[in-house]
Amino acid sequence: MKKILTAAFCAAMASPALAQGWPTGYESVMLQGFYWDSYSDSQWKNLEKQAPELGSYFSLLWVPQSGKCLEEHNVMGYTPYYYFDQNSSFGSEAELRSMIGAMRQNGVGVLADVVINHHNTSGWFSFPKEEYRGTTYQLQSSDITADDDQGKTAAEAQRQGISLGSHKDEGEDWDGMRDLDHQSPNVQRVIKAYEQYLVEDITGGGSQDLILMSTLEDGGVQIELLTVDRDGMFQQVAVMGLSADKFSGCAAVAAGLGADGKRYLVLDGWTGLSGNNLATVLLYFDEESQQMLPAEQISTSELYNASLRNVSTLVSRDLDGDGIVEIPTQPDEAGLLNMSQSRRMDFIVWMDYTSPEPEKSFGLLDEESSCYIELPAEWEGNLMLTDSAEGEEAVELRTVDEGKLVLTMRLVPSSESAAGWTRLGVVASRQMQAKLAPDVEIRDKNYRLSKALYLLN
């Protein structure tokens, strides 16, 4: 079939114009994020690190074929073997998803080469058997063009007593790979599922869902999940109710992936006597029953108690741009507060309850400026937050066991010098600066104080 190796899915741009071609007058700039044999430079992790800088100059990033090949290492991806396994020479599937999320967060769309002209095999005719959403997909010898490899494949098929497809190749022959017969119903079925997987699952940008919330007569909350069918009409696919004794309304809803690859719905609801506290429900859509069900990794009651928090604006979100929605918690054992009441700050732990290791991030929430400062995880449980002599807008973190100073933070005018301090960023037109104590050593080599600030508004 025709050798089309061009951008075939768009990760962050689901607009009809881009889905059907370049719109009239399109003037954005695309960066090619790879070159031949760029196994190291084009690692998904390397590209993700450059997302903020790329967002300042480019609208699109072009990446190579992302599926797993038969070869394990140093392969550019253009000899595809697996469609539904996205662990490649450029990184893991999780790293691919994380990179796409980071690019999206910085306003960069991701376009990938998708190779459907030819397919690698084990031996002459063995294609892998793969599963996606409970359905098995496998190409067969009858899906190969009749004149593949200038007739050499047909000769081998005759020797083995195997049948090929009945249609000839409509494009250039690709020696060494089996050229696919795109008139074969099975090829069309497999390729459609593969494209659906890339657009709807890997990128999260190809389907349109609508979540409706309503209050029931007993004061509870009803959630309806609607999705767009092929005719562009919304169809109800799931309904779930939340009891009135737990929730009085919905504060926020976020959708994202789980560590297990499933798609989850994270709902933050109003709760408590005053109705100003928040707690979280974690749901996933079960395709077999066509219903939204509570997550299996943690019980509903355990999650309710663990996520109960008294900050009305502290909703769940994809904090680090990896496509997973983290749930904020306020565990009492995270740290101690010993400061004036003029600053509303607290220790926060962000959790991913779909993961066997749920803790994602530990740090300080500053309610007044609506920001979060990530701290080294090794400090959790041995910190005390106190006022600082550095000024009214400064605080200190000391160890509980020894009272040893580890970190000072302050908010200063944007014109203030940062000499001797690490500039974290701008918060409400003021600089957030931090300074580690001279003798502090951080064991986590991946922690960067300069990258610790997250704006939550």
Which SSEs are present, and which pair or pack?
Elements: E1 7-10, H1 16-19, E2 30-32, H2 44-49, H3 51-55, E3 60-63, H4 93-105, E4 109-113, E5 118-119, E6 130-132, E7 135-137, H5 152-160, E8 178-179, H6 185-202, E9 209-215, E10 221-228, E11 234-242, E12 249-257, E13 263-271, E14 277-286, E15 291-294, H7 300-307, E16 327-329, E17 336-338, E18 345-351, E19 359-366, E20 371-375, E21 383-387, E22 394-399, E23 405-413, E24 422-427, E25 430-436, E26 453-455
Parallel strand pairs: 2-3, 3-4, 17-21
Antiparallel strand pairs: 1-4, 5-8, 6-7, 9-10, 10-11, 12-13, 13-14, 14-15, 16-18, 18-19, 19-20, 20-26, 21-22, 22-23, 23-25, 24-25
Sheet/helix structural class: alpha+beta
Sum up the overall morphology in one term. Answer: elongated
Helix tally equals 7
List low-confidence stretches: 1-21
How many strand units?
26
Kindly state the percentage of residues in helix: 10-25%
State which percent range the strand residues make up: 25-35%
Largest sheet: 6 strands, mixed
Mean pLDDT: 82
The separation of the N and C termini measures 50 Å
Biggest β-sheet: strands ordered side by side in the sheet: 17-21-22-23-25-24
Radius of gyration: 26 Å
